[in-house]
């Protein structure tokens, strides 16, 4: 019998990454093209320290990889299918009422 734990772990990691708006913006930016941290920090208008923390989370979740390029490091999605998954998620969530926010995870009825 096959275990479904690895599938669940993948979804948990993806969910953890998507739980933060900055990480969502990072993933969408990297979906467009690989980038260096300084360029990402400028594009997202956040400090490099804050960016570094979010990139570390995305690396730990297995969604992005750091690629050495000379003396610099470039970040990219770990797999092109992650970009496709982001596109699918963006287009699948069509029943969003712009006037409502998602409940906190601790509340009953969270999305």
TrEMBL record:
Pfam families: HTH_5 (PF01022). GO terms for molecular function: cadmium ion sensor activity; DNA binding; DNA-binding transcription factor activity; lead ion binding. GO terms for biological process: response to cadmium ion; response to lead ion. It comes from the Bacteria. InterPro entries: ArsR-like_HTH, HTH_ArsR_DNA-bd_dom, HTH_Metal-responsive_Reg, WH-like_DNA-bd_sf, WH_DNA-bd_sf. SUPFAM superfamilies: Winged helix' DNA-binding domain (SSF46785). Residues 4-100 form the HTH arsR-type domain. NCBIfam families: HTH_metalloreg. This is ArsR family transcriptional regulator. It comes from Streptomyces abyssalis.
